[in-house]
Design a protein that fits this description.
10 strands, binds adenosine-5'-triphosphate, binds magnesium ion, 5-stranded antiparallel sheet, Rossmann fold, 239 residues, globular, alpha/beta, 2 domains, nucleotide-binding, AAA+_ATPase, 26% strand, 5-stranded parallel sheet
Length: 239
Amino acid sequence: MKALLTIEKLHKDFVLHGQGGIAIKVMHDLSLELHRGECLVLAGRSGIGKSTLLKMLHGNYLAERGSIRIHFDDGLLELTDLPTHAWHRVRRDVVGYVSQFLRVVPRVSAREVVMEPLLARGAYAQDARQRAETLLARLNLPERLWSLPPGTFSGGEQQRVNIAEGFIGEHPLLLLDEPTASLDATNRDVVVEMISEAKARGCALLGICHDEDVRSRVADRLLPLDEHLMARTSSQETF
Ligand SMILES: Nc1ncnc2c1ncn2[C@@H]1O[C@H](COP(=O)(O)OP(=O)(O)OP(=O)(O)O)[C@@H](O)[C@H]1O
Ligand SMILES: [Mg+2]
């Protein structure tokens, strides 16, 4: 079976133009394949480029060189040269993302944050609301919080809103940036179950997860990123 995601020789530097052109070399010749129903967890020390990779897959950062291809039954999408206007549809329909921190929008309630990915696809508000509430309840977010904007929520409460928003769209590819970092054991278990269910319905997951227990329960494979760094990873170089 063809991989859902194929990354080949991906390369990323950050050039800090405001700092005399300092280049931070992050990724060199990274290649990987990810299949439907599989969960690959990125490993490696802090600052090695794990979140950067997820952000390239979600269109927040541009790749320098290399290719990121997503295969569908009826075609292929090359993300590295996707026109800007096409990213909206990719994020809506193809690549879901649970970021490490919730992007809080003032006056938008937790329930509406979670409904949004379905509304963006034209779902009926009533259906979107019901699915959002089901997920929030499953993640044990107290009902009294559902109609409040999550700006004042605790770290773990915000993380659960973020997880619900990321999972509700059932995208074919789901990116998870430390989704359980702020959660207690009960809610970590819920997230592990949600990841298992996503795998069972054919979702491909690429994640970062420092928690050994969660990692061992969800990961089909680990990818240590160190070997993909530039040869000597003092990692900073001046032009
Ligand atoms: N927008 C940016 N501009 C400049 N440098 C950046 C930018 N984003 C990330 N970096 C740098 O790239 C490197 C990789 O960062 P990244 O956030 O991907 O690390 P990480 O592996 O996710 O680390 P952690 O485990 O701490 O989350 C770091 O040295 C970071 O400072
Ligand atoms: Mg990170």
